[in-house]
């Protein structure tokens, strides 16, 4: 496993389960402890919050947004949420001392992100950040499947929520572990069966056995999933979807980027494909998994119940493969006096030739996927992969509409003055 742990050299496995686990400790923002009205604390407790790590940071022309991924502090709070950063947003440690946002991101710090109760119904939800409290202890989390069950313990194989590495770990339940199902109802450890999908929080201490072992006292279990889909099953209504392009295929999964359906969905999703996934063409004719190739246009349908990491991951219920072609380019954004507002000049191939260069029209219909912590602004020097309309002017360079732009590197991007 490609991951660094805080190692317990002498602690017993039983001690792991007895130790306090960071993912379940309770702590209020420092500003709640003030002189005067004791009701200040009660007010803070009623503020929704997500406990986890910042998994995405976007700084566009005028606004800043962060994505916090983890678990809701209360059962009704969000496991993942996109939060707008305003001049009033505070970033503090447990003692109330200001902490720079970039330090939180670079250090992969665990935070409690308190936000306004006024949030959208999108997936993930969007809101406004009030206060982020950096925690003294960190924790890890895994999205995966239970492959073995023992008395008081489960073996989980899956993916680290934060670094996306494959992982397998034994998790031992603490005495007062919180175990809830997909509907946020409390269940017993004995209700967990092999094949069920879980999101489990553990640490900070991990014993470096094979597989590693740790204590956990917060686990979310999808009791309806005992098969191969991460979330949901064939009986669930496919309420969400993405109309877009397959940008990657690997290990029985496809990545789709495009436009979320009006009734629900996300613009960036990784979908698991199995025998329960219905794959058809636009006429409804059944197709095989071989039809799901990179750079193919599709309309993907899935349940709105999903494990919200970034990008979102869930099981594909139905995929419609479209006939329309895709046109893909790779290159570097270049400064040019040939572009106007909402256009970018792309040096296709990042070479010295201009014959294959393209000017992309960027509109509200363009989906831009930035790097983690990056901006959606496409500045000169930014390396991108772009999918654009097959309709292009005959000028040199050609001008066309950008549909999806994926930023692969912004380290050489020109910074605004």
Automatic annotation (TrEMBL):
Report the leader peptide range. 1-25
Q: Which UniProt keywords apply?
A: Signal
Q: Output this protein's name.
A: Peptidase
